[in-house]
Specification:
Elements lengths: L2 E11 L4 E10 L2 E9 L8 E7 L6 E6 L4 E10 L5 E9 L7 E8 L9 E3 L4 E3 L3 E3 L2 E8 L9 E6 L6 E4 L8 E8 L5 E7 L7 E5 L7 E4 L4 E8 L5 E7 L5 E8 L4 E7 L7 E8 L2 E8 L6 E10 L2
Antiparallel strand pairs: 1-25, 2-3, 3-4, 4-5, 6-7, 7-8, 8-9, 10-12, 11-12, 12-13, 13-14, 15-16, 16-17, 17-18, 19-20, 20-21, 21-22, 23-24, 24-25
């Protein structure tokens, strides 16, 4: 693959004081973008906004999911094998409470009307994203306990997105692993791009074959934030993420799993508080939602990118 070209990018939402942490999906010939709204990056009033659009240009609100006792964060959206939308996120519970965090899932058949939330995974484990493969949802949950020794990850699977079982109790444990992205190869190999925030804070690339209980890991040598991955039909692996050096910004990279290397392709208009993209391949181009503060406050953006084949 030779590279990529940013065709266009435009702001699609800016109505809350802080708009952040996006995801994107196509469902019933419409676009659906989800993200968190709140007073700040961390604030007790976090809610999950669902936007919809026919053409990717004119957007309207389809739903706003709120909680009376939690800051809702990190909205992720997918289509279940049964044909429903699944929205996942985490609730940072208002204290005092028995636990600090619970992961949640909502379901909808139209994007406007959503079920009551179901608690998923273990208490105080943040199931950051669910990825469907061959009818099963997979998710890495990271511990939100304060002490460093408890900051581990677990790998979960679910047949329906509601009930999750632990596949790997101690998935990756060194230097505060947390946010992740999964991608599956046609031969069922699973790849995991994993963020870390302590020690060297360098990202890890994991690899496993079914039943996904034995993993090998490569150090990618670079710090990342808010990762997302997509595998194109020709096998190209793309990753959207935040890079920190020389300054924080949102980038699209090619991931070479054999070499263990992230190759920067496009830097999106962005700076500072930014990243957390969502990906859809549609009409022979990559559509990418993300958020950024380069225009003075955190807003939601949608980019279209042409991937040039070498």
């Amino acid at each position: 693959m030779a590279g990529a070209e940013l065709l266009e990018v435009h702001k699609i939402w800016d109505r809350a004081p802080h708009n952040a942490f996006t995801d994107l999906v196509r469902y019933r010939d419409r676009w659906w973008c989800v993200f968190r709204e709140g007073e700040g990056h961390v604030s007790p009033d976090g809610a999950l906004r669902v936007l919809t659009s026919r053409d990717g240009r004119e957007w309207s609100s389809a739903a706003l999911l709120t909680s009376p006792n939690a800051d809702l964060r990190d909205a992720k959206i997918s289509v279940t094998p049964g044909g429903s939308l699944m929205l996942t996120g985490a609730g940072a519970l208002h204290q005092p409470a028995p636990v600090r965090h619970r992961s949640l899932a909502w379901f909808s058949d139209n994007g406007h009307d959503w079920s009551e939330p179901a608690w998923i995974g273990d208490a105080d484990f943040w199931l950051w994203r669910a990825t469907w493969w061959r009818g099963v949802a997979y998710s890495v949950g990271y511990s939100t306990q304060v002490d460093a020794a408890s900051r581990i990850t677990r790998l979960y699977s679910s047949p329906d997105g509601k009930k999750y079982q632990r596949l790997v109790e101690r998935y990756f444990t060194a230097d505060y692993p947390n946010e992740h992205a999964l991608a599956f190869e046609p031969d069922d190999t699973c790849l995991c791009l994993l963020r870390r925030d302590n020690g060297t804070a360098t990202a890890q690339l994991g690899r496993a074959r079914p039943p996904y209980t034995e993993w090998t890991w490569q150090d990618l040598g670079v710090r990342i934030g808010g990762p997302a991955m997509i595998r194109l039909r020709d096998g190209t692996l793309l990753a959207g993420l935040r890079l920190y050096k020389p300054q924080a910004r949102t980038v699209l990279c090619r991931l070479d799993p054999q070499a263990g290397r992230l190759e920067k392709l496009v830097t999106l208009p962005s700076q500072g508080d930014s990243s957390y993209p969502g990906f859809v391949w549609h009409d022979d181009r990559l559509w990418m939602s993300y958020y950024s503060s380069h225009e003075g406050k955190t807003n939601i953006y949608l980019a279209q990118i042409r991937i040039r084949k070498g």
